[in-house]
Amino acid sequence: MLKQIFKPGTFLDRDVEAWQLETWAELMDRLGGRSALAETPLVLPTRDFFPPTEASGHARAEHVFAIVRSLMGMDDNWPCRLEAQPIRRGPQKVSDFVVVLGGEDPNGTFRVEPSGEVVISYAPDLVDHPVQMVSTFAHELAHYLLAMQEPFGEEETHELATDLTVIYAGFGVFGANAAFAFEQHGDAFSQGWTSQRSGYLSPRSWVFGLAVFETLRGTRGEAQAHLKYDLRAPYREALKYLVKRPEVLSALP
Asked: Greatest CA span in the chain, whole angstroms?
């Protein structure tokens, strides 16, 4: 099928790229094709999409959650409750120089209660990290969106497909920027690094999916100014790859 179109020199690993395009085809078949994507905005970290609020704590999270739900078209007929998780463990020191933020505790969860109520939870420290918070809300709402569909793909790739659904819904910039955070710090007495991962796709897979989204919409390059600096070059590379290889997307509905 889609694997047959590949020639040497794919942007991603050959099998990974084939899987991503097959998943794109499935999402577009179930959630709407190119015409639906043309009406889906590329959501950016600007006041046009996220008006400021004086709210703090859980009220702030609810404010952002309501915006994300609305932008995903899930505010009226998609009832769900947002709840804060218990405060999670602090940064985990793994050596004298390396600290991993948040340990293995999840940024968010999606569940359906026995009563049928849908509940999305989030780590309360995300309130101070708006990009990660928006990305987390979009990911958990994507779980909700997919839960209303017949299962597709393999169980082991479900979280990856959920990340692609985040891109399909217009939140690829947030997902890509939240995918991996790395910071160096130091003073007169010590130095070290902190790192944090969010989501399941690799950063390169995120920018490829974002380039697919923009190419299918016919609006290439809008994301660049809003991506982290180290993501901009591979993002431009992905856009150029899709321009040079139009057959890569020709099989998508």
From this structure: 59
